[in-house]
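Section 3.1: Structural characterization of target chains.
Under the original work plan, the team committed to producing a structural model for every single-chain target entering the pipeline before any wet-lab resources were allocated. The record below documents one such target. The sequence was received from the expression subgroup and is listed exactly as submitted; it comprises 309 residues.
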Amino acid sequence: MSWVIGIDLGGTKTAIGLVNPEHQIVGQRRISTHEEQGPQAIVERIAQEIADLEQVHGQKAQAVGICCPGPVDHVTGSLLTLVNLPGLSNTPLRQLLAERLGVPVQLDHDAKAAALGEFHYGAGRGRTHMVYIVIGTGVGAAIILDGKLYYGESNSSGEVGHITVDRHGDVCQCGSRGCMETYTSGPWLARRYQQTLAKLGLPDKEASGEQLTHLAATGDPAAQAVMQAAGTALGIAVASMAMIMNVELYIIGGSVAKAGDVLLEPARETVPHYAFKAVAARVQIVASALGDDGPILGSAWLGRAALRV
């Protein structure tokens, strides 16, 4: 088994991990992405960090896997029009990295890479089917059926954040109303918290999606109401997916998902109200086991898969 590199390229930070044959991250670097500098500069800085990791640990990586926010074309290895990384839009990133590093490179969407990490090394180990839902600034998902990622006919599967959970709800950025994302994503949680404070006649204050977790756990009534609504919306979406696909395991990751049971327990309680009893009884909603390491390990799996082609 070979040593490989897994890369999680984000809008502001990029994480690079050297992964050993036992699928452990033995060394890691985190750098600012600086997408405004363009693809060549980013590729060069990534190459330098990889070389440093290889020198420190005395190992040469045989392949690289990299994941990025979508949309991406996993077949050609290209980034498409990126909202969070406009400086990298329409870039053949896989080709650029492969030419610079001289090893096989695989590229995919960050949610899909995180799902692969959980499926092979985390909360999805030993399963055949699962859905990984990432909740952070936005909401997305990756679907694994019969042990393989499901991409859909036009590579757009997994947009669960835009399942309608309230047709009379707020207008989402996508143009629809009452999307699950308008109840669960970090920016929307912060917005709903201030709205709830006003409704309860409490003093106005700001809190991020992650901060709401702590506030809810310490008894803040507005934070508890917001997290309850978020969990309910998540439960409705999961119930819908369970009814359509009959998938039983739903792994929740991302920054907001670090709330744990404050978010997940309302979701679990909601599923039986929106799905057949026989289906709902088998649904499991669990937290990510790998956390921030999931995308790196999933990307490393992609890189290792390139060696088997």
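The chain has a mean pLDDT of 93.
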